[in-house]
Description:
This protein is 54% helix and 7% strand. The chain has 14 helices and 5 strands.
Amino acid sequence: MQRIFSGIQPSGIPTLGNYLGAIRNWVPLQRDHECLWCVVDLHAITAWQDPAALTQQTREMAAVLLACGIDPDKHILFLQSSVRAHAQLAWIFNCVARLGWLNRMTQFKDKAGKDREAASSGLYVYPNLMAADIHAYHATRVPVGDDQRQHLELANDIAQKFNHDYGVEFFPAIEPLILGPAARVMSLRDGTKKMSKSDPSEQSRINLNDDPDAIALKIRRAKTDPEPLPSEPAGLEGRAEARNLVGIYAALAGTDHAGVLREHGGKGFGAFKEALAALLVEKLSPIAGETRRLLADPATIDRVLRAGAERAAAIADPIVAETERLVGFLRV
Ligand code: TYM
């Protein structure tokens, strides 16, 4: 059975992008993989987080994952900062990855923005920690949204260079799993920008805890163009906003772009947005309800996370110990 690792930052309320690009695809993978699902709080602090908010958001993220169908008994759900192996291996990978590789990372450029000098050094080495997350478990498959593709290529480069430099076949290659018609959900205000927890505009995203009125309003206000929907996917070319809404609909309805356009092609956006809002409410409301129910008992969530961390450490610690031996650290 192949081992899966994936992570999500507790840097805000999870968005529809996180759900359709990642979480929703994680659930069925649990049928035939051994899975580790990680709330990556070490990654979250690469940008400033208010401490009390971070604590709260971390527990909420765990609750959302459980509400979406993550199974903490058959699989492992845990917090990154609870397992020391991540930071230990990340340091070694900081010494394997080359500056030239990190300089090519588009996410660093996007997140650091114009004032690069003011970005944290953690944000710069973010992809090395991500590589450590995966390789600390010898995981071979990583389900993510499309925006993480470049980071996973880097994780493979790091593994290859480590293996080469130390003359071993220790870290396996990883395969990105970028799944479904909504692997890249875009902002509702700008079809060229990805939907993000950290976008300053609340109108740009659907949060997984939005109530039905908020969902309907955001979809009604979503940017579109004046043309009706095309009847075939080729007609979405050059229409980023239309393509985005059709992709969201397709992912929620369990179909593809063509399937949605067969049903809704020729309609104006007024009618389509109404159908989309209704579908979103139908799919997201149960998640919001279940999240609230779980959060009423935080001690149970914390217990799940503690047990998860113990099981995760039992896998990662021996792998990191062997890495340290390969590097030549004197064990006394
Ligand atoms: P984060 O928290 O930014 O995103 C979590 C997951 O959600 C996906 N995602 C999206 N998918 C489609 N459309 C969007 N607009 C969208 N926004 C986010 C991301 O691709 C991701 O799969 N660096 C990772 C977290 C991480 C990780 C790892 C992932 C840390 N270590 C090891 C895999 C393996 C991230 O982007 O988190």
